[in-house]
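User: Could you write out the 3D structure of this protein bound to zinc ion? I've included everything you need below.
Assistant: Certainly. Input first, then the structure.
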Amino acid sequence: MTAKRKTENDSTGTKSKYWDPLQEGVKWIEKYSESLENFFLRLPEFISTFIATLAIFTLGATLRGEWVVILVTALKQITGHTTSNKNVTTAEILQTFTTQNMKLSNFGFFFIMAHIVSYAIYFAIGGFLHWYFYINRRHKAQEWKIQPNKWLSPELERHEILVGIVSLFVTGSFSSFLACYIYNGNPSTVYFQFDEYGWLWFFLQFPCVFIYQDYTTYILHRMYHTPFLYKYFHKLHHKYKQPTAFSVTAIHPVEIMHVQLTACLPLFTVPVHWLPFYLVVMYNYYHGIIDHSGINFKSQWWQPWQPDAEFHDQHHEFFHCNFGFNMDLWDKLHGTARKKNLVYTEATFHGEAPRQGTAAANKLLTEERTKTD
Ligand SMILES: [Zn+2]
Ligand SMILES: [Zn+2]
């Protein structure tokens, strides 16, 4: 059995002289695969589902170093070391930034901790998911894979890990800065006492932050699908027509920072309690991994707003449609949801594409074919 897996492993990646994180990780997991498999088989289904959910959640929470910000704010709340931020204005915050009058002691500690954990979990859990599905269950792809007959080439698998490493460095550094900024008591509109702005606002923040983050990400994503921004930034993320869990952070550093800064804007503009804010962020990251996994995950009955993983997978397969993430509402409202009778290629911008069978569609398909060859 081990020998058979080794052959499959060779078919997923050619041997290279340089250090290859994918091959190394696979080799490491291979050593323990039999015992891991037996362990999972003996567990009741709900426990293995729980472990898998927790693993993906942990991956999401640590990927961009957000866990440091959460830890710092949670500790502030628990220990009561919170100077009241009430009535802090955005002008005051801007002044702190422009005059560089901010305290950032212990930055090195936050920076190192955020990166160590981020990369360790990225390779440990990301690598495990990759092995579990893409190597161990490769022969059963019809059962779990959204595009069961198409696979990302080993070169592109390595490419997405390398881009991911660079982007994680940028986003993790920003999270370390944010954690350090809050830890040192610099002005922000984050608050700590649950009822400081009333319980109604506390609970309303869940839908408000969710809608804000999802809609702004939709808008940014559509912006990055206009010809100039697509060519120089977003095209990188679209190299992966069959995305995997590693594709989630394989985004141009400029674009990923743009998205992260927009998502964090409420922390400096409106009173937000850290708990609802970061619970929504974690929810988004969890689904970011699910949506890029290439695995046929279905949304649950309690999340009617959430499209299945297939929705974003199709964005990678067909390029300029299905721009949304955790709500398919935006694509329905703006008419950018994928229409089955249209032919989308990388050259059909703005969610507009010719009908199947028309001369324009045939021309596009020929152009696409010659481009790939
Ligand atoms: Zn895109
Ligand atoms: Zn994507």
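Residues 1-14 have pLDDT under 50 and may be disordered.
User: Perfect, thank you.
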